[in-house]
Design goal:
The structure holds two protein chains of two kinds. By secondary structure, chain A is of the alpha/beta class. Chain A has helices at 11-24, 61-70, 78-91, 102-124, 150-153, 155-160, 197-209, 217-223, 238-255, 264-271, 283-290, 298-301, 325-330, 337-348, 381-398, 407-415, 443-448, 451-472; strands at residues 2-5, 32-35, 128-130, 138-142, 165-170, 173-178, 181-185, 309-310, 316-320, 356-360, 367-370, 373-376, 402-406, 428-430, 436-440. Chain A has four domains: 2-120, no CATH class; 125-185, no CATH class; 197-244, no CATH class; 283-472, 3-Layer(aba) Sandwich (Uracil-DNA Glycosylase, subunit E). Helices cover 43% and strands 14% of the residues of chain A. Helix content of chain B is 36%, strand content 10%. In chain B, 55% of the residues are buried. Classes of the chains: A alpha/beta, B alpha/beta.
């Protein structure tokens, strides 16, 4: 029987070196006793570690990572389990990628338990401030983890609390961080932790952040297991908090609704902005009112009303269908891909966007959510009907010489006709309010068409914009 | 009234903050204090304590002040409430945060506030506290700032430079309820604030033409909260609103908060027992939307009332209402379909996919891999298991639903 005694700290590296030598000599798992430093020696007549054998020893990164975690487990059998797994992996590597394998399952559970314990250490260590005569503040904590995680768990604190000196004492040993490096030492008696005013404040916080009308102790017990409570001072408050909760809830119920202080209505009257019922006299007023429009149901899902923009005395008004995803988020019309095509074509045909009013037949975005995306939907007849109120208002206040309708929705909203667009494109029709309406493609159609047809449509679109430019010149 | 001590202020302003459910501290940029300052962040979130209400304490969650000029009926801090008022100085917030942090009690600060004087004034003070922590003290921990809707865009822009997370609460699942119960708030400006945060986050990810990356903006994203049970919205309405918010503003989380009685209540809302089970089911449904490929309508349609079945979880309820899809052959089913099997979580499914490459997966293997087979049984076939008539049996729901119990009044 070969006996390998592992040191108190840097255990995993020592196990790894010994296991490599043993496995290279193909020493079977049953032929090795792995001992921790506190175990009595000479239980059996111990053979020394053999010389490195002839066989190559392989271990994947995943296995080493798993083994490193299992090495912190408190189960004394962990070393022989790991060695058995290492030996098995020399001939059967596949089991390490099979979650259904019982050996991998056991090791994975041990590793998970260690990770959880480390996580709880990061959560439940509580430092107390110690007096300091140097420039760095000093803190100390006592913690009792389930596993041997002092070395695995403390580098976290070194990264987090680099500007202070601290020590964490555990039954396994003591980690001291002074001046930027951690030292590990064998166990010492539990340190004296002086009173710390911040702990009183912490208890005040703990008691007051608790809502007595919600009692759900199961979540608390599973995430903050009882075994950690003895070193968490705030848990001493829990029995009283729970005992007092029914009384507090009863008191709320009996008190019922309160009487508002006299100044309250004066404060809210000053900041409430009632919705004006009067018909707006300017485009700016109309935009303010439209921002709070609830005429149809689209406002509930869309972000905001996308009001028109441009010159209030524009000769040309360009009307699209409805805002899309980009317009909805930015609150401005024609800023998405179709809008960029429109703005580019306008520039090419000599239409100055500063002298034009850009708007949509419907002022809210309509969509269906699909996972993380919003799929555009065309507005239906009722949306167009409801929103015509705003479109008519814009047309009255701007009184453009010509209106350009982009696509079928705008053409319908402006002329009332749903006839197919192809024969109407490039012609001027009489709008519902009597004004001339030039009909053309919607730029989003051009973006959707296959490239040969898109070229034709774009040429027609450009020609129509040119026609509009001549008309208002 | 004499001057309040720090301890008294802390009691008032943490009591005032406890109705906000959010406490996440995960998913931000990785950083630590080895090159100066204090603190670290960027790994998994850490919950440093739990209170008996089932909520974790990860951050110091406080209001800067509970003075407020708004009159939201559901809120204890509304102007018409007689609750005791207090206000922290910025230095007090900074000191509390750093001293709790150094004792390893918190991951950072979640700062919210009542609206004082104006949204800009309030947001400006909050941003100042975040700036003091980040710039003056080199604080590397987590900061979550509540964004005040209607605050000036440049204040929001500055907030995003210091905060890991920004949030603005949608408050209620339906616009009409918000207009009714919170007359000073406007749903469209709340959504516009969320849209603005999303756009700023995206802009901060684009490199400029010089190839330089702009400073990160709210790297842990944005979240929101909805109060459940204060209005008549069904769970289906709530989930639809969530789906809109997730798809529109790339939210990391929507928090659901069971409407809870408050001291000094408003007459506009009844004092009810908080619907904790409903809240729990909504979180489960939310998870199904985000990680299991379910759409809001599928989950909401499982019950004709539009509400989730409180007795069984929403995935099981969906499976029971859509039994034609089952049983699923575990050896061959797609990942998407495996995710729809009750009792299989995302990790179990990942394990099944790698285990079945190594050979047949049997009943005992699934148990070992974490599947809850008592739930999955009727919905799967395995080499050594077949549900037979169980899948379509009339009494299947009764096997899972707990026996009805007398409802307790309050």
């Amino acid at each position: 029987m070969i006996r390998v005694t592992l040191p108190r700290f840097a255990r995993f590296e020592a196990w790894r070196a010994a296991a490599r030598d043993l496995a290279s000599a193909r020493i079977p798992p049953g032929g090795v006793i792995w001992a921790d430093p506190d175990m009595p020696s000479d239980l059996f007549g111990a053979e020394p570690l053999p010389r490195r054998g002839p066989h190559q020893v392989r271990a994947t990164q995943d296995f080493l990572q798993l083994a490193r975690q299992v090495a912190s487990h408190s189960d004394p059998e962990r070393w022989s389990l790991l060695y058995a797994a290492l030996m098995r992996a020399q001939t059967d590597r596949r089991f390490l990628s099979n979650p259904a394998d019982p050996m991998l399952d056991r090791l994975s559970r041990m590793a998970k338990s260690v990770r959880r314990d480390i996580h709880k250490m990061h959560a439940f260590v509580r430092f107390h401030e110690l007096p300091s005569d140097g420039p760095r503040r000093r803190f100390a904590a006592w913690f009792e983890p389930e596993h041997l995680i002092l070395e695995a768990g403390t580098p976290f604190f070194a990264r987090r609390f680099a500007d202070m000196d601290w020590l964490i004492a555990t039954p396994e040993g003591v980690a001291r961080f002074t001046g930027g490096a951690i030292d590990y030492a064998p166990p010492e008696p539990r340190p004296h932790l002086p009173d710390d005013h911040s702990h009183d404040l912490w208890q005040t916080y703990f008691a007051n952040i608790f809502n007595p009308a919600r009692i759900k102790t199961q979540a608390m017990r599973s995430e903050m297991p009882l075994k950690y409570w003895k070193n968490l001072p705030e848990t001493r408050l829990i029995p009283d908090m729970l005992a007092d909760a029914p009384r507090r809830v009863q008191a709320m119920r009996e008190a019922g609704a309160s009487t508002a202080p006299a100044f309250a209505p004066k404060v809210t009257a000053r900041i409430r902005q009632p919705i004006s019922e009067a018909s707006p006299a300017t485009l700016a007023d109309a935009g303010t009112q439209a921002a709070r429009c609830t005429r149809c149901e689209l406002c509930h899902a869309a972000t905001q009303t996308v009001w028109g923009e441009g010159a209030p005395d524009a000769f040309l008004m360009i009307v699209g269908e409805a805002p899309g995803d980009h317009e909805d988020l930015q609150g401005r019309p024609f800023v998405g891909p179709a809008g960029q095509l429109l703005r580019k074509t306008m520039a090419e045909t000599g239409l100055d966007s500063e002298r034009i009013w850009l708007t949509n037949a419907v002022k809210h975005f309509r969509f269906t959510p699909r996972g993380r995306r919003r799929l555009h939907q065309s507005p239906d007849g009722s949306h167009i009907q409801h929103c015509r109120w705003w479109l008519d208002l814009e047309r009255r206040l701007i009184a453009p010489r010509l209106t350009l309708a982009l696509g079928a929705t705008a053409a319908y909203a402006l002329t009332g006709s749903r006839k197919p667009l192809t024969p109407r494109r490039g012609r001027i029709e009489r709008g519902l309010d009597g004004g001339p309406v030039l009909i053309t493609w919607h730029p989003s159609l051009i973006l959707r068409l296959p490239s040969d047809r898109a070229r034709t449509a774009l040429a027609e679109f450009r020609a129509d914009l040119g026609l509009a430019a001549n008309h208002i010149a | 009234m004499g001057r309040l001590t720090l301890q008294q202020k802390l009691a008032i302003l943490s009591d005032a903050a406890k109705y906000d459910a959010s406490c996440a501290s995960s998913g931000t940029t990785r950083r630590d204090s080895r090159s100066g300052g204090i603190g670290s962040a960027g790994g998994t979130g850490i919950c440093h304590a739990y209170t008996p209400d089932g909520r974790c304490i990860s951050l110091l969650k406080i209001l800067m002040t509970n003075f407020c000029i708004y009159d939201c009926a559901y809120c204890i801090n509304r102007v018409s409430s007689n609750v005791e008022r207090a206000r922290f100085s910025p230095e007090e917030v900074v000191t509390l945060t750093l001293e709790f942090y150094r004792r390893n009690m918190i991951e950072g600060l979640f700062l919210s506030s009542g609206i004082i004087r104006s949204p800009d004034q309030t947001m400006g003070d909050m941003v100042r506290i975040a700036r003091m922590l980040r710039v003056d003290h080199g604080f590397k921990g987590y900061i979550h700032l509540k964004t005040i809707p209607d605050a000036a865009p440049d204040l929001v822009a500055e907030a995003g430079l210091y905060a890991d997370r920004l949030s603005v609460n949608i408050e209620l699942p339906q616009d009409a309820s918000l207009r009714h119960l919170a007359p000073e708030k406007r749903p469209e400006t709340i959504r516009a604030t969320m849209a603005d945060v999303r756009l700023k986050r995206e802009a901060a990810k684009d490199r400029s033409h010089t190839g330089r990356r702009p400073p990160r903006f709210a790297p842990a994203g944005q979240s929101t909260q909805m109060i459940v049970g204060a209005d008549q919205a069904t769970d289906r309405d709530i989930l639809k609103t969530s789906a809109n918010l997730y798809s529109g503003y790339r939210l990391k989380r929507v928090y659901y908060s069971a409407f809870s009685p408050i001291p000094d209540a408003s007459a506009a809302l009844p004092l009810i027992k908080p619907p904790l089970m409903r809240e729990h089911r909504l979180y489960q449904a939310d998870w199904l939307m985000r990680f299991y490929g379910f759409e809001a309508d599928e989950i909401g349609a499982a019950h004709p009332s539009g509400n989730l079945d409180l007795a069984i979880d929403p995935k099981l309820a969906w499976a029971l209402a859509n039994r034609a899809h089952f049983p699923v052959n575990v050896a061959r089913a797609s990942r998407e379909m495996l995710l729809r099997v009750p009792g299989f979580g995302t990790r179990t499914v990942a394990r099944i996919l790698s285990a079945r490459r190594n050979g047949p997966v049997r009943y005992g293997d699934l148990l070992r891999m974490g599947a809850i087979m008592s739930k999955a049984q009727p919905f799967v076939t395995l080499p050594d298991w077949s549900p037979g008539a169980l899948t379509d049996s009339a009494g299947l729901r009764a096997r899972f639903a707990p026996p009805p119990e007398q409802l307790s009044l309050f």
